[in-house]
Amino acid sequence: MAANEKAFQQLFEKEYEGLCRYAYTFLHDEHTAEDVVQETFVKIWEGKQALLQDSSIRFYLFTAVRNNSISYLRKAKAAATTYTDTTPEPDPEPSLSASQLQHIESEKARQIAEALNKLPPKCREVFLLVKWQGLSYKDTAATLGLSVKTVENQMGKALKIFKNTAFDAISVLLLLLLHFIKTTI
Amino acid sequence: MNPDFYDLIAKVLSHEASPAETAALRQMCAADPAAQKAFEETAAVWAMAETVMPAFPVNKAAAWQKIQARTGMDEGASLPENFRKTKRFSLPVWTRWAAAAVVAALGTTLLLQQLPEKTQTIVAQADRQEVTLPDGSQVFLKKDARLQYTTAFARKQQRHVTLEGEAFFEVTKDPQHPFTIDAQKMRVAVVGTSFLVNTTAQEVSVRTGKVEVTQSEPGNALLLAAGEGVRLSGNKLQREVADSNDYFLKTGRIVFNNKSFEAIIGDISRILGVPVQIDASISTAGREQLVTYTAAAPSAEAVLTDLCRITGYQWRKEAGGYRIFQAR
Lengths: 185, 328
Prior knowledge:
The structure holds 2 protein chains of 2 kinds. By secondary structure, chain A is mainly alpha-helical. Chain A has 2 domains: about 1-90, Rna Polymerase Sigma Factor, Chain: A; about 95-185, Winged helix-like DNA-binding domain superfamily/Winged helix DNA-binding domain (Arc Repressor Mutant, subunit A, Orthogonal Bundle), CATH 1.10.10. Chain A has helices at about 5-25, 30-45, 55-80, 100-105, 105-115, 120-130, 135-145, 150-185. In chain B, helix 2 (about 20-30) crosses helix 3. Chain B starts with a helix and ends with a strand.
């Protein structure tokens, strides 16, 4: 097998699921999310094979999936509505869907997920890329077109708000466990 | 609490922090129980955010086949057996919670209690890098200087550091706990002063207070007052007058009063760490002319431009440094 095909296959194996999850935070539909990610892989194979061996491929994939998800939403919206003015729509923002929230069984976990959803949009997007997708600050900054300094600030802001809203939900259970673990170590 | 506190926590938790930043957070937590509590709570929430990540069950094999069909890739390039089917385990919710809690507890315990038992090493990435020690003492490092201290320092049991390279110290006063520096062949002991230590040139210069310098072998000692310096020359401690440029790491100022042009260029090469050559086109009289010049936080090129304006020479960049020459 050609080296490119092998690299392509490994990339697919490693990133497909995470990318689907990322696309889903925009699209809130499993089939559409998979379609968008598959389309992105096809486009990489057709036009960007040179990138396969490049260390920036991960950043490129997330950026492409983000852009393709947003443009999918724009097209779907344009098809369904008639604009009366030319004001550009704001960027769609990633979030947990209502059905995802419903599927969380534990009440506490749902409170955490809701706290996550209540973060300011830019904060939430940065936080999800770093925490869920494991992107570095550098790649997150490049994907979202921000400076690394801004990513640092948004992460700090997100953690502070998230801690203040979510910690109450888990504090009792967790402090007991923390105490238990510390005294037994 | 410092507004950047959470920025720092976020960096440490997402493994983006430099060793110096991790050390800074550790210091904040050691110094302030409220900070320690905030950090533990944030680390717990951080671990919890993992548990609510939605599952996204995908059929990778089917997806791969679709991509293959659309790209016209070799049909033989199928996925290895082991990931044709994506297996999904559905563990009870409480196991995820327990796991996250253990990770959070172990993480904070390790980060803040075990790691401090190790040696903290700071290697300066740039000139005049500023480090604040656990006792509040400040150190201004020259690029590549290496400063080490153990956690005994953080617990204020022993104010002791090891230095390799050049650094300016501003030591907080604490007569109960002398501050000592291992500077390779010299040992420096103070109570609360400011001074420069350079292990490359084997010298110490005192700006304020008193400093005791001891030679490692054979153990001779000298007590220095403000404005005095010492250099280890051969195997002898030699008393000198401190040069005002010895405080550059702290002040960022370079000062020359009626000094020969040649000596100034030598000092600038050393202080700013960039080789500057005087070209053969410059006469002996030109090299010996006396120049008075002061600059604050200068770049090498800004200093060269100023000096050339004073002397009428010109400079150019060349491989590995700069050259000053007389234009024809």
